[in-house]
Amino acid sequence: MQGGQVFYKQSVADAIGRDPAMKTSSLGFWNALHDFQGPVRVLMGNCDYVDVGPAIWPHLVAQLHDARLRVVPGGHVSWLEHPREFRTALSASLAEATK
Length: 99
Known about the structure:
The chain is an alpha+beta fold and 99 residues long. It contains five helices and two strands, in the order ααβαβαα.
């Protein structure tokens, strides 16, 4: 990710990281997500910018009430790079969450 791509710019990431409100904001998001009792479905590419790997989201999903993680192989923007696989994963996630 160093050097940036079309959806990522290192200087912006650095500025966000220096913002003192970042941790408070992130914590607020996590608390709200953790307290939510409905179904949570996380859909991401395996090279997604928010969790390259994915290394973090599997641990977060494991702590939630009714959560599932689906990882679409390949790419940072899987809905553009692998639209068929993304559509299949999205449809499955929505169907599962609305049962």
